Fold these 2 entries.
Entry 1:
Amino acid sequence: MDVRRARSGCPREKTTVPDRRAAVGRRLSAGAGRRLSAAGARCGRLARGCAHWVSRRRRIAADQFLRGLCYGAGTAVVGLLVVWAQAR
């Protein structure tokens, strides 16, 4: 096993772990340098855009869900108090 430099580029820092992922990736992806077609590139941009849109709005959706849950719980408590007061 030969010694190679670490990814940081520091000449003093060495590692003895072989980079197996790079070798496997080179074998499995024969057309690794090819560009996507125009339709494929548009689909990729659309997918990344949708994922970004969802990640930005995840917190807003969670806040709205919590707000709705609190309103529902408050309405239920008030309703039960009214029913209890009318029954007495």
Entry 2:
Amino acid sequence: MKVLGVEFAPLSIPTERRLQTVGALHYTFCFLFFGFGMLFFFIYLFLFTSYYFVPLAYLLWYYYDQSVSEQGGRRSNWVRSWSLFRYSAKYFPLELIKTQELHPSKNYIFACHPHGVMSQSHFVNFATEGTGFSNVFPGIRPYLCVLSGQFMFPVFRDYFLLSGAVEVSRKSIEWVLSKEGCGNAVAIMIGGAVEALEAHPGSCTLKIKSRKGFCRMALQHGASIVPVYAFGENDLYDQVPNPQGSRVRRFQNFLTHMLGFSPALFHGRGVFNYTFGLLPYRKPVHTVVGAPMDVPRVEEPSQEQVNQLHDDYCKALVDLFESHKLKYGVSEEQHLELE
């Protein structure tokens, strides 16, 4: 039913569909509001109530526990297996596609593309069992790498750590690749926060040409690099037009540089309407995990070796995209744009 240009959802929706919406809403709420909400709540408790000791006690806990996000995290397989995440995966739906077996005797760097507005598919695929990662890749433990600032919010950090997520810092990634044994896969959104500003429906633009740190770490630890491309991730939200050089993009770039995260101006659908809101659109996302690139261990790799590995990786990523794009809704004329 449409009223004043807004298409409302029907009242008679199957329970399964409602549960899927709850799953998608959970991630959106946590991503946008949980962290800041708890921070402001603790400030309120400290300044305006007699429960000031609660944030003080938590501050002591944080001081004691702050390094865990750089030391392998605090994974809970029970939390990762919640049915909530399976419903979230079915909402779009999401699909995790294996092209080659990964042997548990090795460690891997999953180079994930594109970032998207909120990295919906990457979170569900690698920080939960929503798409059955453990069944698709038996013996492999995924560690989703996210901005360090995510682990500074009270309570939210403790909840997020249960997913197996860790900081996307050199120390954190090296810990997983060197001190957690074998069979580990660190999943890194290579394009970072800046790439989120390119997340327009149909866009295939990746920020990668200057992103070579993952190649250096792969060489230093002999970790295989695995190209990962999520077809449809950029289609989950509409974003305000922000072409390079526009006032909007210049302002966004400034805030990204100052704050460390990208202030994307986006909208999706609502809980009770299909026209406007913060929920992602119900559009399928197919995440293709490519063949691992074996990397020799070089304790002190030269810049030339890093550059060569980066060039080889970019070629492998383009090949992955080209060989699967027609199956997942990308036209023959469209190609990856590497910036």
